[in-house]
Amino acid sequence: MSRSRTPFVPYITIRDGEEAALAATLSAMPGPRGGLLYTDEGPGDRDARGVLWARCSQNRDGNEVLGKPIWKDVHPARQRECMEQLLCQGCVQQPSRTSLGYLFLASPPSAATSTEWIEGYRTAQPPLCLQHAAVATERCGHLLREGVVALRARVPRLYGVLGTYYRSRGLQPPEPIETDEDENDVPLSYRDQRYTPWILASQLVRELRGVTVINLAEEIEAGV
Prior knowledge:
Elements: E1 13-15, E2 26-28, E3 36-38, E4 52-53, E5 60-61, E6 64-65, E7 69-74, H1 76-85, E8 97-98, E9 101-106, E10 122-123, H2 130-139, H3 141-146, E11 149-167, E12 175-176, E13 188-189, E14 199-213, H4 216-222
Parallel strand pairs: 4-14
Antiparallel strand pairs: 1-7, 2-3, 5-6, 8-9, 9-11, 10-14, 11-12, 11-13, 11-14
Helix pairs in contact: 2-4
């Protein structure tokens, strides 16, 4: 792929016309523990750890995703696909992987004064191939504003999810719980059995272990 200004839209980016399922499809499980369920739930609605995922329509023509991009949002199913299978979020192919691990891009925390934050860093951004990592560093507004660090992780282990928390009162349908804006960016660990039944997941999160900061430009030049 040429690194010209040809428009490029990552696979995980949500498109105009793709819509979330109506809240009316949600119900609550009976019993003291409770939890969310879809009234017409199918086998693909939960991940391997039993967490329920948000439904969203897709504008597709075969393998091609269509429509004007909504840059700030990601499609739950496509993000989950890339994170579960460790595929490039740009092209849905194999990401760059070397002896140092898989390639991820991250913005350093605002208060960071060293690189200590990289070990155990939790991200909802799937890995990238070199080609699309180069595109992202040039064109991603968030990375351009916040700064970017290229990381390789030997062990990008599954950690948990981001999503919307719900509660149910008596026989009433589940309703979303309002949270502070900062809390929306805090992933829920799969180990937290108190809340995993009550979250409608929209992004899968991995925790990066065995992390090394790399010089992306040098790797691109070398064609690693």
